[in-house]
Every structure is written in structure tokens, then in C-alpha cells.
Amino acid sequence: MSTESVAVKAQQALKVHQTLWDISVPGRSGVRLPDSDVPTQPMPDAALLRSELPLPELSELDVVRHFTRLSQKNFSVDTNFYPLGSCTMKYNPKINDVIASMPGFSGIHPLQPESTVQGALELMYNLQGILQEITGMPASTLAPLAGAHGELSGVLMIRAYHERNGNPERKVMLIPDSAHGTNPASASMAGFDVVTVPSDAQGNMDLKALEAVADDKLAGLMITLPSTIGLFDPGIVEVCEIVHKAGGLVYGDGANMNALLGRVKLNDLGFDVVHLNLHKTTSTPHGGGGPGAGPICVGEKLIPFMPSPVVERHGEDEQTNFKLTSPPNTIGTLSAGHGNFGVLVRSYAYLRALGIDGLRQASGDAVLNANYLLKRLQHLYYLPYDRMCMHEVVFSGRWQKAQGVKALDISKRLIDYGVHPPTMYFPMIVEEALMIEPTETESKETLDVFVAAMETIAEESSQTPEVLTEAPHHTPVGRLDEARASRQPNVRWRPLETQQS
Amino acid sequence: MTESFPHSYFPHTESQRREMLAVVGVDSVDALFADIPQQFRNPDFVLPPALTELELGRELGALARKNAVPGEYASFLGAGVYRHFIPSVVPAMISRGEFLTSYTPYQPEVSQGTLQATYEFQSLICLLTGMEAANAGMYDGASAMAEAALMACRVTDRDRVLVLDTVNPRYRAVLDTYLLPQGITITTVAPDKVSVNDTTACVLAQYPNFNGGIEALGDLADSAHQVGALLAVSANPVALGMFKAPGDCGADIVTGETQPVGVSMSFGGPFVGYFTCKNDYIRQMPGRIVGRTVDHDDRIGYVLTLQTREQHIRRERATSNICTSEALIATGTAVCLAALGPGGLRQMAELSYQKAHYAATVIGAISGYEVLNDGTWFHEFVVKCPKPPNETTQGLLERGIIGGLDISSSVPNGMLFCVTEMNTRSEIDALAEALGQIAKAV
Fold this sequence. Notes:
A: 17 helices, 11% strand, B: alpha/beta
């Protein structure tokens, strides 16, 4: 091979990313284990054993280089501004990972005798206490493993409450038209009929429409505060009163709690149960789509129905011990463990690092940053709800759409400027929605660069729209053929001779 | 109240805040919260005082040290969560900020790392289980089994599921939570008493089962298929390093907990449930799925696919409500399987098998102890002890050993022991000696 073709080949190898199977060489291994130190035991009948185990074979460096190069194809909070609305992509403090990796936390087994895991249980108990104080709710459980898992537990508790009170016919769960898709999906899994409630022109809940559907079939309402449009509904107390008057309960989706830390207690407003997304509000790393944690904090009426476990404290001083317990009318367990403990440790560390003054600063700066972007960009992008926002601002790309440029194109062009796109096309009630959540950990300098990029894009939209519709221009791959992915699903590697396409 | 709180997590200086407030047109940060009804705004919060990073490490380190750590103690606890060797490449790769601090790959052009790693996770899991299609992962093994049952009901349009009584009771409990609200009937039966009919959606089995035993999956598949029902199996991925793949025994859905492969026990989470099925059922799967496709220049790339099944599009008619799952843990599992390769995984499985069978032999030889497993089993076994398990557990702890799980509620004086490649012969011999002493103690 000529020198030139060697160089070209090397360049291509870097560009076109190979799979584990492309670099596999039979006979290699990335791990060596010690030989057996026990007398040889008879093996099972060969008919029960597998004859082949077709996994790739790599050296340790092969593995490291493969996954390191893969990682470099991601945008992340550690590398880029990531204003993905509704997801609260704030800085994830490194000390939290260090603490969660301590052997006393990462190495313990969930079924060890309770006397041997008192430190872990104490941490969980303390975290329950802090979450209860933040929400004002009298009880909580850390069991749900993600936000939607918390939603499912919450609505199952509402169902159990009505059944216990002799009202099994209460089967209607009201959900605003701006809600996350998880809300109706969770309600449906809990056996409820979903009824959608419209928002008014200000983005608040339409109280008249709510009253009209709040009847004796009502089980409850699932509502996000601030809403998915990033707005605090000033009528929230009336909303809760209408639901309660009709005999229903109010579920609070805490996805947007980052706006409210240290500012208001949801219990005071009338919520009966809320979940918190610890990976959002309390800065635990999102991991490319989890792990998360979705603890629920509950009001008096629902305490007996909480999923288990709940950590309780018994005794005083030297005699103190912590126990995993099950509420009397529990809806049951949600997983085989006690919650995503590694996430809970990080969350607890974050909350202890900030204290109440720090949490107030977090919500204050998060809301300040969103409003700063609102004011700086309002003249270039249509703002469907022209009022002060909370931690995120939702623009509409309708002015650009008139120039032949979609919200999608604006998003893809942002990639060329080194910014992860905002959440697009959600909430569904906003045409060409662009939902921007800067979070409190982003500096004014970063926000100003983002504003400059959005200004440039607005200009490009009118002058050179094709630059946007063909964006991004500098990524390892361009826009991918999603229709083909769906039409001919290829969801796994196959040996060459059996590959269909 | 309006005094700002300097912290390393917050970049704004006071003068920058004033500058930004001027742009917004309000005179204080508090004024941004005017939509919150006055009487509920700014209540008192009582939280512990803020800690510096130095203090945080010290205080939480003290909590961590209150726990007894397997490894420092010889441990024989399993029952669904297992202590196996985790190669250093696993934490090294998944602690990279680019994997750790990104989110769900909605924007494929800047998420190819997560997407390809997930595609490789799906591929590795398919090869391991002998199945045709896999998703990007569920919360854990138990919820994955529950979602498998829900999917079987959708596929067959039936609402009755049969669960073997050899399934992990903690998994069995999660089935109740997920299935009963949807009006599904759950019947629990012994493996040799399986009775199915044309209302049965699926048979749910575990492989190896809770007691370590290898179920006759082929027979179960035949019974289920005769009446148009599915066989859904929850399988331990390390056991699949040596035992026949469930897909090769006729299983229609195979799920499980990947924790044994590269995931620290971490007091029970975060883990990741894997989920596989036959190609025919792929559009009924819950959760995210990554697919391979091309861009306009025919370059290979990966995207989230078949999204019309999911909650953000289908809402109350979605196949599941699952959104954020356990992507990072799935990536860790992929890294671990890639490092182990076929040789490493097989060796891990065989070492666990060998050592567990050695342990059962020496424990069974102690007067008063009886090993109840018969037939073929993997790395867990049930022991009927002469003393109640709580006494045995305490006696072992005093000797620096974390014993097996107390299962006396189902087996009188029963304990479930687990042995893996992490246990040395000297630990096993020390366990046997301790059990002998405990039996004799008055």
C-alpha cells in the first residue's frame, strides 16, 4: 500500500466509526480472570449448555479507544451549552460522583441486614426530609426510578384512595393540553380515562373549561407547575380548589421544580402528591437518558398508599436506627430495589452543598437567565405568551416559517454554532415551538454567545435559508433518514451473511 | 432575603445580575416571581446549612463508612443482585463527561456516541439471549418483566398471565403493581403444574430461577405455544455465558437485569433492565429503540426509531409511559460485555458455577445443614439451616461474613446462598467453618 493510501485509510477509519464487530479479532480478550481455586466440580449436561457465544473479541485498549471516540461524538453539559427545555441541563458537580463512588455507597447490597447499612438508610431518611421541606409535603418515598415512574405511583395512589373510599367509579384523569406525554401515558397505565383540558390565551388553565368537566367521575388532575410553557399559573390555587370541590385529587408534575426551589411550597397551593425529577432539579447527571430518580412527596390523604419502601427513624441518640418500611395500604413496590440509590446519593450531596440560600439562588438565577434570553430574543422570534417566564422560555418559529425555515432547521443550525438545540415542537399547543431552558449554571457570557447565534440564524433565515435547511454542516453525520429507520428497522448488528440490507 | 449567595456552581457576579435585571426590566430577582400568589411566596424553609466541597466529602464519607461493604466482608448474598468483577474500563468509560452529562439523543447529529453505544448494547443483548430485537433498556429487571407481561397481553389480546412460583418474589410483587390496575389476572403455579388455555397471554419464568435452578424452558415454550400464548423469560446475563440462550429454547420475550455485568450493586440501583423479543413484536415493545440508518450522503448513523409507540407521540395510547430510563448503565453493560468477550463471560459464569457447587458440597457436609437444590443449578442454592436464619446471619456477621438471604417465610430455616468468582476458596471454607460453629453454639 502506498504511503498516501495508508494515510487516507487511517483518515477514513477515524471518520467512519466502526462497530465493535468491525474491530473484533478472534482470540483477543479485554479481561483476564484468575484460575479456579476450588476442586473441579462436575459440569451440567451438555444439552443445557450453549455451544457458541458470539460476542466481539477486543483488547483492553480496543475497548477504551472505541468508546472514547464514540463519546466524542456527543454534545454534553461538560462540553457544550445544552438549553434543552424541560430537561434542566445544569452543571453536574463532580464531587457528587466521587461521593456516590465511595465503596460504602457503591459496593453495598440492597438485601444486607439493616444493621449493616445504617449509613445508607440515614442518607435516604435525611433526603426524604429535605424533599418534604422543599415541597412542604408531610411524607415522601424515594422508590420511583424516574419521573414517569413517580407519575405512575402517584396516579396509582389516587386510584387506591378512591377505591378505599368506596368511589371506584372515579375514573377520569384530567390533563392539560400542554402536558408532557408521560402524564396521559401514566394515567392510562393506572387504568384511568384521560380527558384533556384546554389552556387559555395566557397559557394558564382555562378555569371555566375545568369546572365543566370536574364532576362526580373525577379522580384527579395532573398538572405541571410551572407549566410546560414555562409559566407560573397564577390561578393554581383556584385550580386545586375546583378539583378538590369535585372530590378529585391534584397530582403535581415536578419536572419544572427548578423554577420554584425555595420560593413556594407546593403543599400550600393545594397539591396532594408531586414527583421531583432529581436528575433535573438536583443536578444528577442525565447519562444520555438516565439514570434518573422520581421520588414522590405526598399530602396527608395519600400517606397510607405510598409505594414501599419508606425509610423510618426509630429511637434517639445512640439507639437510633433506620428501617425500610411499607405503608399500611401501599400500592406495592415499583422495582426490586429501594430506589436509584446512586442517584439519591448525588442528589443529597447537591442539596447539602447548597442549603436553602443556595437553592433560592439556583431558582433565582435560572429564572433570571430565561427572562434575559426572552428579552434579548423577543424582537427576532415570535413569543406566543408575552409575559414574564419562569425557568424556561418558549418561542415560536412562525416568523421564520414564513421564510421557509422550520423550528427543526433553526435547531440544526444551532449545532453548527456549538449549541445543543432546544426542545422542539413541544408543547404541542405552540406552533413551531422552541423551548429554551438555560439553567442557573450558565454564565452571561455563554448566554450572550447564544443570543449572537440566534441573531445570526434569524438573519440567515431571511438571507440564506438554505444554510439552515441543510444544517448541520460540521457533524460526523448529517440529517439522518428516520423514515427509512422506521420502515426497515435495523436495531442490532448481524453477521454479514445474514444481513438483510 | 435578596442577598446573593456566592457558590462555585453559580457564575453570575452581582454586577452581572444587575445588568441582566436591567435588560429584563425588574429591580430584583425576587420580582421575577410575582406570579406566585403573595400569601404563599417565600415561606420559611428549614434545611441543614450549606457545606463546602471539603465538608461534604467529610460528612458523607462518614455516612458511607457506617455501612459494611461486601468485599471487606466475605459476602454470599445474591437473590437478584450479584457481586461480580467489574473491569476498570467500565467506570472509566461511563464517567466520561460526554456520556455522563448528555441527555436522551433526540438530536442524532450530536448524539452519535450515545446512539451507537446503545445500538451496540441492543446487539450484544440480542446475541447473548439468542433473540431478534432489543430495546435501549428499562428501569430494572423487575419492571422489565412486568412490561413483558403487559406486552404479551397486547400481542395476544388476552388478559391472563401465568407466573412460575420459582420467580424472585421481589419481581413477583412488581407484577402486581403493574398488572392488577389494568385488570390482568395473575396466577402463580409450580413449574410442573403449568396449565394454560386460550385465555392465557403468557407464561413468565426466570432463568436461572430464584433458587438457582435451570428451568426446562423448551417444555414451557411448547405448552405456551400450543394455546397461542407467549413464553416470557427473565434471564441472568452472566448465566447466559454458559447456559443455553432462552431464544434458542423458544422464548418469545426475554428480559432481565444487566446488573451482574459491569454494574455496581449500589444498594439496589441504578441498574438497567434489558428487553428483547421476536421481530414480529417489535412495534409492541415499550421504551426507546435505536436503529441504524444513513444520512443524505449515505453515511451510516443511528437514530431513535419506531417512536410512534412512545408516550411523547402516542400519549395515552403509548405502549408504556417510560421516558428517562437507564441509558448510562446500558452503556456500561455494553463496555463490560465488549471487554469480557465470549471467553471472559464464559469464564465468569463457569467460575461462579464451580465455586458455588464447591460451597454447596462443603456446606452440605456439615452436620445439620441440608442443600435443597436438585437438578441443574447455577450459582445460588437453598440451605436448610439448623438454627433460624436471623441467628445464623448474626453469627456470620460476628465472624465478618455477610451470609445468604433469609427465605424462612417460604422454606423453614431456609437461606439462599450465592457464590461468584469474587469469592475465594478460603472465604468459602471460612463460611463453612462458621456455619459449623453456629450450629453447635447453644
